[in-house]
Amino acid sequence: MKVTIIGAGPGDPDLITVKGLTLLQEADVVMYADSLVSEDLVKRAKPDAEVIKTAGMHLEEMVDLMVERVQHGKKVVRVHTGDPAVYGAIMEQIVLLKQAGIGVEIIPGVSSVFASAAAVGAELTIPDLTQTVILTRAEGRTPVPETEKLKDLAKHHCTIALFLSATLTKKVVKEFLDAGWSKETPVAVVYKATWPDQRILRTTLEHLDEEMHKNGMRKQAMILAGWALDEHIHEKDYRSKLYDKTFTHGFRRGVKS
């Protein structure tokens, strides 16, 4: 007996994995966060599937329903936005399901951070510029651990992707500046990545808050910050060793320049 948690991807129904779509189409019961997951995707469930919207349900309601359906021999899938491993709130569900003797299978999905990078044509790790990406969020009503304050993370001066932070941009800017970031640091904001109403904002750290206000980006926005987001980076010559003709690796012997 198990529940399958499926990463639906960032919005575009075609960005679900083949495995995830197959399991969705085989399910007897489909539970999905209707505030975030595309209804066009959920419509791909089989015609007689029981489809349940969960945006208005609390944790125990959802889990009790899953347990009841599984115990009646139903194939149950829980469809999450993006990839369930990042801010997916799945662990609390898994704990209660396991207490009820129900197993869990997780199918990964495309995270909004990578969909956003694709939307702006960015590589988040650039040779000789940054080789690290930090996925985090600004501290708001939900606290972050003391060792993970944004100011401290920003001191690494790498690419930073901010989830769930669109209403906290004043704090974000202050934390980055306090960590020594330049006001001119490039920032890209993607609202509803891959959805039909996707919008992209390119700005700098200095103007991030005012530009997001001006463009009405106060929710469902991914903030990508760092010099890897420089929209003119394609004009510069950052090269990896991977394709360097003088570099030897397991599949190719380098040639002398």
Automatic annotation (TrEMBL):
Gene3D superfamilies according to UniProt: Cobalt-precorrin-4 Transmethylase, Domain 1, Methyltransferase, Cobalt-precorrin-4 Transmethylase, Domain 2
InterPro entries given in the database record: 4pyrrol_Mease, 4pyrrol_Methylase_sf, 4pyrrole_Mease_sub1, 4pyrrole_Mease_sub2, Cbl_synth_CobM/CibF, Siro_Cobalamin_biosynth, Uropor_MeTrfase_CS
Designated name of the protein: Precorrin-4 C(11)-methyltransferase
GO biological process annotation, one example: methylation
Keywords: Cobalamin biosynthesis, Methyltransferase, S-adenosyl-L-methionine, Transferase
Organism: Bacillus songklensis
Keyword set includes Methyltransferase: yes
The EC number(s) this enzyme carries: 2.1.1.133
Family, similarity comment: Belongs to the precorrin methyltransferase family.
GO MF term (any one): precorrin-4 C11-methyltransferase activity
Associated pathway: Cofactor biosynthesis; adenosylcobalamin biosynthesis
PANTHER family linked to this entry: COBALT-PRECORRIN-4 C(11)-METHYLTRANSFERASE, SIROHEME SYNTHASE-RELATED
Tetrapyrrole methylase domain span: 2-208
NCBIfam families xrefs: cobM_cbiF (TIGR01465)
Keyword NADP attached: no
